[in-house]
Amino acid sequence: MDKTPDSDQRNRDQESERAVNNRDATNNTRGRRRNRIPAIFGREADSSLSTEPTDRTDSQTHQYQGAGNYQSTSGATPVADVGVDNRTSGGGFRAPPVRAHPDIGSPSGSWTTELRSSLPQVERQPASVGRRRELPHQGDDVEYSPTEVSVTRPVGASSSDAGRGSSYKPGRIQTPESTSLGKPLHRLTEKQKKKLYFIDALRERYRVDYDKVQPIPYIKDRLYCVDKVYVEGGFEFMTTEQVTRGSGPWERLGSYTSVISDQRIQSVRRIIEGEPGYGKTTVTLQLAYDWCNRVEGSAMRDVEVLIILRMRQLSGIRSIYRAIEVYLLGSDPRVKEADIAAIIRESKSAVVILDGYDEYPDQHSKRETDVQRILKLDLFANTPVILTTRYLPDYLAPITKRVKLTGFDEIARDEYIRKAVVGEDEIALSIIKARLKENPVLEDLCQVPLIFVMFAHIAYENQDFQNFKSVTEFFRYMIRCFHEHLKKKSKELNTVRYSIDENEHAALDKLAFLAISQENQQITWSREGMCKQLGQEFYETYLALGIFVEEEVVSYDSSSEVEVRFYHKLFCEWYAAHHIVYILSQPGQSVSLDELFRHMKPEDVQYVYRFACGLNRDVGSSILQYLVGTRGGLDRFTILCMLEQSGDVKGILDSVRRMCSQTVNIKEGDSRVQQRSTIQLLDIAAGHDILVPSLHLDQCFSKYEAKNACIVLKSGLRLTNLKTVKVLRVTGRIRETVGDSEGIEVTREELLGLFQTCGALKEIRFEGRGFLLPHSIPTKMIPPTLKTRNIIVSYEDRRGMIHQLNWDDGHWQTTTSEPALRIPQGELDQQWALEELARLTTDGIPVSCIHLDRCFSKFDVTNACIVLTSGLRVTNLKTVKVLHVEGFMGTGAIPSRFEVTREELLGLLQTCETLGEIRFEGLEYFLPLSIPAELMPPTLKTRNIKVSYERDREHGVVHQLNWDDGQWQHQITSDGSVRVFIFQEELDQQWGKKELAVLSTAGVSINHLVLVRSFSNITDNTQSIILISGCTIPVLHTVRELWIRYTDVDLEMFLRILAYIKECTKITELGFQYCKVPDEVDAKMIPHLLKQRGVKVYWFPRTAERYLLDFDAGNWKRY
To answer: How far apart are alpha carbons 149 and 129 in whole angstroms?
Structure first.
């Protein structure tokens, strides 16, 4: 038999398989490690968070499970993923760990015989393993626990090959993957191989990043995998349909994975906003961890390709694909720019994350960049892109969804302390929490996750932890802790001695000031440049302190250099504030503060101002005068700066009184800085018995926390000092989310606790229909002191009715003379409304209108009552004047359909004895096409009740019943274009046909005709559309666009539809949504007239996929 390349390959595969199987039977290794994490401040820490591999015994075997994980077949703990740390004294390149690759085609991820046969000949050797870390530098004394692990590498490669100059570069594949078809690597197409190389390289890159999380800057020997220390902070999203730069409204998201999976924010453009230190980058690392490890239950599990780029590295890029190639793939020659573009474009599910837009050097570039094209949807138009940033870009696509991080609340802080600091030591937990309570100025600062993390570790390790009066005092103490820790390390044997005075940092102050005082803030420096400016010894000292962080960055031309940045921007602001103090404290200085702060907005660098005021009282006074002059008087931020001057408030009490003399407002759209400033103002007022006549919580109230006697805002901030507030006004709003009518519930206990906390309270008002208050308060629960105070408590319910609490019996009294009732979807709201309706009927009070908001189900003729969708029944209808039945208007997506028969409609009209009008609005309701005259009782004709039916406002037609003949009269309500939906029900199709005839006769332009599961065919003469009920729609010369949804179309039917469109002279667009259409059409069969008229034919198979028919080629082009 002739030998072919394939047969030679099969022979080599069989030999390789036998060799591998033999080695696997004999070469099990034992992993050894020491369960110890180096101590912080001299104390041994819990080793449970170690990222080193767990111990194995010789009897255990492990099966590869994909994503770098092995599963013990004996039931033991899985072996953790480990990497080889190859360090050189010169800070050389650290190669990523070598890993096998997951078997995509096998559910279990195990290797198949067929896959094994494709492996190159390998040998297994032990290697030293250490934690991943930042670039090493002089003075590191990290302890590494050697462990024997099996490292797979090609035969002939020496153990030194894993270091600098090795073939193991980012993105290089060492073992193959099988495909979903189960093919070994040598049977894959070149395109499939490149995709595997690409995805593997991304995983390797991200693992290096998420395995080196450093919670405390100066402790470099404690690096964690992000999943070990990640704690959920708060997430909220803006609920507006189109993006705005305004204040909201905002609603809470469930978790970080909701950013990907929550249907309410599904869009190809999403922005995650957060103040400095709120964890934007940490969220991206956690998403990367979930993707790399295909975490069960995570939304990232089903993402095929994940691209994460740090925007601070994208200066001057011309191609985003080139950036991916350079920064994520390293020097791998097998995947090029064109390959990357094709992989992303053809991927079933790709997500792109651009991290740190506020650090993007070219955001104000006059020359258009790929990043700007992405924001404008000119690039990656159908690929979900997530942008993280401190502030919004100049341009926002209308479809952009905004998400913001709200920081750590008390639950998140407790979780972090347990997870990363004290373990299960509840006593230590209580000590740290007590220290936070003792420092109220830090309660606010510790909303910032990064600051809280450092606070928690410092508070745990230092017995002499002190109380602080200002943020400046805390930051000064924290910097001192950094230096003290380094001094202790310097005293150990064989360690580098650091002799830099912690108070001497003038050159660094100037460097930091120049960085943030320019229009485009500088955030990174070259190592050589910074050493030249600061001096080698100073630089190495601050690198050892952890205030500087080094990163090896591959530049655009594939060369590499070491860049330096501050551990966090707060440190840059700290040293910049020192330079400002130096400038303004010089004798005879004549610096203009306008010029000094020209590019430093308080909203962007608030701590520069606050630190400067706290570092020097005289300089602080000058800055305060400047703020008062530029901000139109003393405001809340200025007060925060005042408090930095050793917390002394005596000099500002007159200003506080003046600010409190008017209504104090806290709004949902206020930044956290603004809300904190206002809370600080209220604290000062309470501490000095300054009366606050009125406090308005505008759509920001979340709940009253009885345990801590405080109001919790939606931002997570707390109002604890309200004892001098006289009037409290709390406004909310009805949430517009479809299917969600719940308000904020305030229990009896919360309401009573709120009264007692506000000692000076005279009145409290809940307005805006956004709250659910208790039906009543039992008199035995009401303290006598509250009855004596006789506080006015008013409440606007979801129906717009105003109630006032009667302290004598604990019930609510309605203050409106002829109330209107709104009954929404929520069952609790419905119970409220029905009880109120029963009381009004009993008291003989007429009800001007009952508004059934998306909750009407049917009229029960037998029991003479309305049945709601919840099953509750409306029986008291005798005194109702107007009944308004409203459904979903203008959505085109109907959750349920309800038919109102002739008998039900007549029975409803007869039951409501005082009814003068009834309105049905919404596509989900079907009313009879007519009512025969013999069925109409004479009494109804005499009453002449107005009965109207509007299927959808966008249809532009209102139907009104004529009592003389039982037919509907039609009124055109739109003088412009309209949109008509026709669904699959026969009655709906008859109504739709009738409305089309009315609109066409009146000459009204029909912008969209949408057939939802109702299209059947086209007549043979192509003059009419046939609906599934048999109804026909003739050629319409007033329709501009025809859309067919959820109906598959074969080639013959597709051509018939094109022929029908040719007859409709005004149609310019034909669309097919969520259905199958022919892949291609003979271009000769497409009517030439369509091309002449410029008709466009679209196909949207899925939400994120859009295609346009090319008339010349007869196929679909993505657009």
So the answer is: 8
CA-based Rg of the chain, rounded to a whole angstrom? 35
Residue type, position 358, single letter: D
Give CA torsion, residues 1029, 1033, 1039, 1041, to 10 deg: 40
The dihedral sign for the CA sequence 542, 544, 545, 551: positive
Q: What is the DSSP letter of 716?
A: S
- Does the pTM surpass 0.85? The reply is no
Contact between 477 and 469 under an 8 Å Cβ cutoff? The reply is no
> What does the alpha-carbon distance between residue 894 and residue 983 come to, in Å, rounded to a whole number?
10
Q: How many Cβ atoms are within 10 Å of 784's Cβ, its own excluded?
A: 7
552 burial type by CB count under 10 A (0-12 exposed, 13-18 middle, 19+ buried): middle
Strand 744-745 to strand 1096-1100: parallel, antiparallel, or no bridges (unpaired)? unpaired
In contact, 883 and 932? CB cutoff 8 Å: no
Judged against a pLDDT cut of 90, whether residue 573 lies above it is answered with yes
pLDDT at 55: 36
- pLDDT score for 743: 67
Q: Which residues contact 1094 (CB under 8 A, 6 or more apart)?
A: 1068
Cα 766 to chain centroid, rounded: 30
How far does Cα 471 stand from its chain's mean position? 29
Q: Check if the beta carbon of residue 271 is closer than 8 Å to that of residue 392.
A: yes
CA distance 847 to 877: 9
Tens-place pLDDT, residues 858-916: 999 999 999 998 899 998 888 899 999 988 654 444 557 788 999 999 999 988 888 99
Give the whole-angstrom CA distance, residue 544 versus residue 529.
18
Count other C-beta atoms under 10 Å from residue 164's C-beta: 13
482: which residues sit within 8 A by CB, 6+ positions away?
217, 218, 545, 546, 547
Measured CA to CA, the distance from residue 217 to residue 546 in angstroms comes to 4
Cβ atoms 576, 250 nearer than 8 A: no
Residue 13 is encoded by which pair of tokens? 């595969």
Q: What is the DSSP string of 515-568?
A: HHSSSS----EEHHHHHHHH-HHHHHHHHHHTSEEEEEEE-TTS-EEEEEEESS
Question: 880 by DSSP, 3-state: which?
Answer: strand
Q: What angle do CA 38, 41, 45 make, to 5 degrees?
A: 40
Alpha-carbon span 216 to 211, nearest angstrom: 15
Q: Is the dihedral of CA 682, 686, 691, 693 positive or negative?
A: positive
Decide: 152 and 175 in contact? Cβ < 8 Å: yes
Is residue 797 over pLDDT 80? no
d(CA 440, CA 447): 12
Taking each helix axis as running N to C, give the angle between helix 190-210 and helix 280-293, from 0 to 180 degrees, rounded to the nearest 10: 130
- Cα separation, 887 vs 131, in Å, equals 60
Give the model confidence (pLDDT) of 438-466 as tens digits: 665 666 667 778 778 878 887 887 766 76
Convert the pLDDT of each residue in 72-89 to its tens digit: 333 333 333 333 333 333
Token digits of residue 717: 């901030």
Q: 139, 546 in Cβ contact below 8 A?
A: no
CB 572 within 8 A of CB 515: yes
Say what the pLDDT of residue 927 is. 92
pLDDT at position 905? 93
The most confident of the ranges 419-433, 731-745, 777-791, 1042-1056 is 1042-1056
Closest CA relative to residue 998, chosen from 1062, 939, 1064, 951:
951
10 Å CB burial of residue 786 (0-12, 13-18, 19+) is middle
Determine how many CB atoms are found less than 10 A away from the CB of residue 425: 15
d(CA 146, CA 497): 27
Q: DSSP labels for 547-562?
A: SEEEEEEE-TTS-EEE
Indicate the length of the chain as a whole number: 1119
Q: Cis peptide before 249, with omega less than 30 degrees from 0?
A: yes
